[in-house]
Structure formats: structure tokens, C-alpha cells
Specification:
- The protein has about 400 residues and is an alpha/beta fold.
- It folds into 2 domains: about 210 residues, Rossmann fold (3-Layer(aba) Sandwich), CATH 3.40.50; about 160 residues, Glycogen Phosphorylase B (Rossmann fold), CATH 3.40.50.2000.
- About 35% of the residues lie in helices and about 20% in strands.
- The chain contains 13 helices and 13 strands.
- A 7-stranded parallel beta sheet has the order 3-2-1-4-5-6-7, with helices on both faces. It has a 6-stranded parallel beta sheet with strand order 10-9-8-11-12-13, with helices on both faces.
- The termini are far apart.
Length: about 400
């Protein structure tokens, strides 16, 4: 007998970055023909007036839901829930709004939460919405360990799944002048430590080393970036790049710099290593240890260690044989651990198993909202009052 299709709805807040890459690759490389993937983009219309739908390969449908924080949250949830066909649809949650819908309305759909970061934000989401979530998917061993310690009574429902990352055609890396790339969503995100780049660049100049920088990120004007990086510095700035274009840029680079304070498991690190670009990053408390082995497939530094970055770049600049050796080790390790086919097979199998096993009776719990957010209160009343608050 032909198996009934399982309709899975991924939710994304429209900000792009690694989360969208994970969704994109899950859809593109899906291995279960019975799974039908849908994507709903939840867009705060008070901040984003127009959202361009990414048009993901493998998506049976892509819907955009515009909402306002001034609305009665129950109204927001009810409107969002109308995009689901029924309570058989499986919810794959990547952020707060879809979890808020599930909790506040007490919907009975199967829910899996992707825990993308080793931050309080994601752990608090898991804790607040626990009764609505059937299983948790963590994207790094450290996140898995931390969440299992925080929610020991749910340990059997917490899984570590490596996300799928496509193979990349590595560049030849024959650059006479080293090319360094720094890639984040926003340059003004303090966690990403963009302020480290001018310091690293200055330290390299003191050693007589000039490099070419490619910087990808929104939030700063080109003139401001060039001024911070200092005179006589070659800088190419992109405010944003589609993933396909970013992969092309990676293939041209030698070193990937990410000195951020904390991360979960950045997709960009995996993509860089598959392209043969050596990652130099902060030691994020073991988050990427299975992939990045210090001085073998990449390099780790304590937060703020400018001299450490500069000295390692100096070594790799002088020893191009070592640079190629580390790059080749990284390609092999990244392709071994982050194969798109086997990883999609594992994620799809877990989603199907969760849907089959789900027997939870979920209650309506008011997780978000003030006195102006009531199930019975008309939205126009809440919205009108909030305009004057």
C-alpha cells in the first residue's frame, strides 16, 4: 500500500543566515519521498516592508506571513495557524513565533524544535514550550549535552543531528597574497566581534604581511569598514550574498576568520572547509570539536587573542605546504561528517519516527502576551491601544 504523504512545515523568520541554509539543504537533499516540505516565512511587517521569497528547491509551497507586534498575540497565532492544512501537519520550529502559536493555542500538531545555538535564547525557547514540543534536534554535541542536562527528564527526546551541507568544488588556492574572508549576517552584531578584524590586520602589517580581505555582512557602510580596516588595506565588501554566490567566493579564499564570542555550529565553517578554506575561530567550548581539530583541520583561539590570529596567519603565509595540508584535511573531514545525503536521511527518519510516535495531549498555555493579549479580546482593540502606549 502506498504510504500517505507527510506534510512538514518549516518556519523561518526571514533573516537568512545559517538557519535558512539548513532548511534549504534539508529540502534540496531530502531522501524520503513520502515527505512533502513546506516553508512559512514569519515577517515582522513593522520592520520589514517587503520580503523576497527565496524560492527554495524542493519546497512544495512557500508562504509569507506578515504580522505586527502591536497585534493581540492570540489573533496573530490564529492567523498563522490558518496556513496549516490540519492538525496532521508536522511543525519544524526554528524560532519563537511558531512555538508561541503552538503553546498559546494548544494545537495538537507534532512539533520538532531545532536548537540552533548554544545561547540562553534557544534553551529558554525549549523550556518555555516544552509541553508543545515532541522532540528536540540539536545541531552540535555541546548543545545536545547542555540541553540534556537542563531537561534530564526529556533526555530521550533530545537528538543530535548533523545538518546537510552540499559538496563544494575547492579552489586551487594558489594566491600569492593570502585571501581572508569574514562572513556574518550583520557587522554590528557584537557577538560576531567584527572589531577584531582591524586589530588582526594591524598586527599583520606590523609583521610586514599584507593580505586581501573579503568581508560579507550588513549593518555598516563601505566607507566606515574601509576606515576601520586602515589605509593600504585591500577590502572587498558585500552587504549580503546568496548562498550560491557565497560558495563561489569561498572557493577563492585561503582562510576563514570567525572570532565571534559564541556560536552553535556555524554552517559557514562547514562550507568553508568543504571549499578548502582553513577556519580560524574562537574556541566555542567544544561546539565544533568533532570537525575542527586544532592545527590539523583548523585553528582555535581564546576570545580576543589578536596576536594568536596574526601569528598563525604569519605561519601559514610562510609555509604554503602546511596551508595546503591543513586545507586538504579540512575538506576530507567536512565531507565525511556533513554529507548531505546521509544527514538528510537521518533527519527525515527522525521526523517520521516522531510523527508516528507522537501521542502527547497538548494544552493551551499562555507563554507570550500581556493583559492586552487575550483570546476573547478583539484585535482592533489591542492594536488601537498599543498605538498610544
Amino acid at each position: 500500500m502506498k504510504q500517505q504523504p507527510i506534510h512538514i512545515f518549516h518556519f523561518n523568520n526571514g533573516s537568512g543566515g545559517g538557519v535558512l541554509s539548513v532548511i534549504q539543504n534539508i529540502l534540496k537533499y531530502r531522501q524520503h519521498p513520502e515527505i512533502v516540505n513546506h516553508v512559512i516565512y514569519t515577517i515582522n511587517k513593522d520592520f520589514v516592508k517587503k520580503f523576497d521569497v527565496p524560492r527554495l528547491t524542493g519546497a512544495a509551497s512557500e508562504q509569507v506571513f506578515y504580522y505586527s507586534p502591536k497585534w493581540n498575540f492570540y489573533y496573530t497565532c490564529r492567523q498563522l495557524a490558518k496556513l496549516l492544512p490540519n492538525n496532521k501537519a508536522v511543525i519544524v520550529a526554528h524560532d519563537w513565533l511558531e512555538l508561541g502559536m503552538m503553546s498559546n493555542l494548544g494545537l495538537q500538531n507534532t512539533v520538532l524544535q531545532f536548537v540552533h545555538g548554544n545561547y540562553d535564547y534557544y534553551y529558554e525557547l525549549a523550556n518555555k514550550h516544552e509541553q508543545s514540543i515532541d522532540r528536540f534536534i540539536t545541531v552540535s554535541p555541546v548543545i545536545h549535552k547542555n540541553l540534556a542536562a537542563m531537561m534530564a527528564h526529556r533526555a530521550k527526546d533530545i537528538f543530535y543531528c548533523r545538518f546537510p551541507v552540499p559538496s563544494v568544488e575547492p579552489g586551487n588556492h594558489e594566491n600569492e597574497i593570502l585571501k581572508l574572508i569574514y562572513c556574518v549576517r550583520r557587522l554590528d552584531d557584537v557577538n560576531k566581534e567584527f572589531r577584531m578584524l582591524p586589530l588582526i590586520n594591524a598586527a599583520l602589517k606590523q609583521k610586514g604581511i599584507h593580505v586581501n580581505w573579503t568581508i560579507v555582512g550588513d549593518g555598516m557602510e563601505k566607507e566606515a569598514v574601509e576606515k576601520l580596516m586602515g589605509p593600504d588595506t585591500a577590502v572587498t565588501l558585500f552587504t549580503a550574498l546568496p548562498n550560491e554566490e557565497l560558495i563561489k567566493q569561498l572557493a577563492l579564499q585561503d582562510l576563514f576568520i570567525l572570532p565571534s564570542i559564541n556560536e552553535g555550529f556555524p554552517v559557514s565553517v562547514v562550507e568553508a572547509m568543504k571549499a578548502g578554506v582553513i577556519p580560524l575561530t574562537t574556541d566555542w567550548k567544544g561546539a565544533t570539536d568533532e570537525l575542527m581539530i586544532d592545527a590539523e583541520t583548523g585553528y582555535y583561539f581564546k576570545n580576543g587573542n589578536v596576536e594568536g590570529y596574526a601569528s598563525t596567519i604569519e605561519i601559514l603565509n610562510k609555509d604554503r605546504i602546511l596551508l595546503k595540508e591543513i586545507a586538504l584535511n579540512g575538506i576530507k573531514k567536512a565531507n565525511e561528517l556533513f554529507d548531505p545525503i546521509s544527514n538528510c536521511l537521518a533527519i527525515g527518519s527522525l521526523i517520521i519516527q516522531t510523527d508516528v510516535a507522537s501521542q502527547k495531549i497538548k494544552k493551551s498555555v499562555k507563554v507570550y502576551g500581556s493583559r492586552l493579549d487575550q483570546n476573547w479580546l478583539p484585535n482592533f482593540f489591542t492594536q488601537t491601544l498599543r498605538k498610544f502606549l
